Amino acid sequence: MAKLKIFWQPAGITLDGIGAKRYQRHSDGDTPIVATSIRMLSVDTPELHYPGTSSPAKHDAKLADLAGWLMAGKAPVNGDLAAHLAPRLATGDAGTRHERQGEQASAAFQNLVDTRLRRPSGTMRDLFVRTADQPFDEYGRLLAYIAPNYSTKELASMNREERATFNLLMVESGWGAPFIIYPSIPNQADLELFHTAADEAVTQGKGAWADPLLLTGYEFRMVYRLWEVTSKLEKGEKLSEKERISWISRWCADMTTGLLYEPQEYFRVRPQDRLFIWPQNIRAAVAALNLIPA
Fold it and tell me: What's the rounded Cα separation, in Å, for the pair 38 and 17?
């Protein structure tokens, strides 16, 4: 396995204003609900509902149409990325497969709740909640790493792997894709664990990675937005350049080489090695992580 070439020490803290909260339920494999909705950092599971509350399975025909547009050169996509995406969409059941994987990811998360949060007595542990540098996403969800809130006595006999966050465990299971976004990067020791778990899941075909035509959660959302843009073009609508590329915006760095790729080049980086960066954070990330253009 390639070693990481980036170093990061986050400023995240355990929020005093949040504290330990009782687990209530989860809406999918990466969104548990406590007193406030949490979006688990650095992990992305297949969608059960997107966009909004709609079922991914309902978009099979749309994604098949997009595959045709990609192969015909009608979508505003670089040729190599089109070649990467088209086979994943042309099956006619891309949305259905994605939703089924979302159901399995949700079940995997429920298993963590049952095995990690539930004490031998049957009572439930609270959740330990830790944010990174950016505390909330655009939907107002708390961005955090979560783990069972073990007692001091329990922690004394546990190693780092045994104290693993649910974020890491979902990646380890293969039902969560690694989805690290600057600056919300785990500290260096945890980043090494995260990268190792992701590498093993991908290379061993664990969970969703058993599907050679897998669309990760972020790719599914991306291709749906691309379908929206391309369908407008197919209807003859005139779009600005900004509108034509609105379906993708994050840059991608390879954590093992330090190389930085433009948004439509992300697929050139192995899934386990990807570090995503919003455009507004590019300068800061390049300086902080010593990234160089690919």
Answer: 15
pLDDT in tens, 205-237: 999 999 999 999 999 999 999 999 999 999 999
- CB 250, CB 221: distance < 8 Å: no
Rounded Cα–Cα distance for residues 29 and 229 (Å): 28
What are the structural domains, with CATH classification, of the chain? 21-293 (2.40.50.90)
Do residues 170 and 197 make contact, with C-beta atoms less than 8 angstroms apart?
A: no
Strand partners, 22: 126
Per-residue tokens: 240 = 């600005």
Pair type for strands 259-261 and 292-293: parallel
Quote the CA–CA distance of 53 and 61 in Å, as a whole number: 18
Short-list 22, 46, 76, CA closest to 230? 76
CB 164 within 8 A of CB 176: no
First vs last C-alpha separation in the chain = 21
Prediction pTM value: 0.90
Q: Note the helical H segments in 11-125.
A: 60-71, 79-89, 94-112
Residue 2 CA to residue 6 CA, distance in Å, equals 12
**Predicted confidence (pLDDT) per residue in 236-248, tens digit:** 999 999 999 999 9
Instruction: Tell me the per-residue pLDDT of 81-113, one tens digit each, with 9 for 90 and over.
Output: 999 999 999 999 999 999 999 999 999 999 999
Angle at 10 between CA 180 and CA 202, to 5 degrees: 25
